């Protein structure tokens, strides 16, 4: 079982967050190469998930339980959604995840333990950072057919198709499909070290 922090969560903020937690718990293998944090507190900000992958680095995920027919309009900064009888404007989940990424980078830089001291990369964080979005109730084909990939693309999204128990990722007990999916979405980083980051988040 992958390392999950905290373990044995009884109540999730949304059903989709619970689904993604269970997905990572099962799919993020080999266990020793992955750590997942659920709603960690970063200077008062709480991203839905942070995943550490030894091959890829740190990925901040924002999970949205939206249905496709709720989305009236989308652009890189904001989505307009039908919520009950109202149309509401919400910050793009991609922008949310990116903002959390910047917050986490600032925290790690302030801590100083994961900052490079070598001349070529002095002052930079030693570990790569990425951000992504999870749509547990939207499948990839629907997203594309409705034209939303022209706004956000699909390269940084995990869809319903990925999280479904019968998906290739969930069916693969070795974790290779999951690792391939991460590397396809967030590009493989050669030479990423296994860092002692449990105590730093």
Radius of gyration: 17 Å
| Distance between the ends | 21 Å
Multimer state = single chain
The sequence of SSEs as H and E is EHEEEEEEHEHEHHH
Shape call: globular
Number of helices: 6
Give the strand order of the largest sheet, numbering strands 1, 2, ... along the chain.
1-2-3-4-8-9
The number of distinct β-strands equals: 9
The helix fraction, in percent, is 25-40%
**How much β-strand is present in the residues?**
15-25%
| Structural class label | alpha/beta
Question: Unreliable runs, pLDDT <50, ≥5 residues?
Answer: 189-200
**Main sheet characteristics:** 6 strands, mixed
Average residue-wise pLDDT: 87
Protein architecture, described:
With 201 residues, the chain is α/β, with parallel strands linked by helices. It contains 6 helices and 9 strands. The chain has helices spanning 15-27, 93-111, 140-145, 160-163, 168-171, 176-186; strands spanning 3-5, 34-38, 49-53, 57-63, 71-74, 78-83, 86-91, 129-135, 157-159. The radius of gyration is 17 Å and the shape is globular. Residues 189-200 have low confidence and may be disordered.
């Amino acid at each position: 079982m992958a390392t999950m922090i905290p373990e044995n969560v009884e109540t999730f903020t949304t059903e989709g967050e619970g689904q993604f937690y269970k997905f990572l718990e099962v799919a993020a293998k080999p266990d020793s190469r992955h750590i997942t944090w659920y709603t960690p507190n970063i200077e008062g900000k709480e991203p839905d998930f942070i995943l550490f992958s030894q091959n890829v680095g740190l990925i901040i995920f924002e999970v949205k339980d939206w249905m496709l027919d709720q989305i009236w309009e989308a652009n890189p900064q904001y989505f307009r959604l039908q919520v009950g009888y109202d149309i509401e404007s919400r910050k793009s989940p991609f922008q949310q995840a990116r903002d959390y990424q910047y917050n986490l980078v600032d925290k790690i830089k302030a801590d100083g333990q994961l900052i490079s001291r070598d001349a070529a990369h002095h002052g930079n964080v030693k570990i790569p950072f990425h951000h992504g979005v999870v749509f547990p109730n939207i499948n990839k084909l629907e997203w594309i057919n409705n034209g939303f990939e022209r706004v956000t693309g699909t390269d940084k999204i995990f869809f319903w198709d990925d999280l479904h128990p019968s998906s290739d990722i969930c069916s693969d007990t070795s974790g290779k499909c999951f690792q391939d999916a991460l590397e396809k979405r967030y590009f493989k980083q050669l030479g990423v070290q296994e860092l002692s980051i449990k105590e730093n988040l």
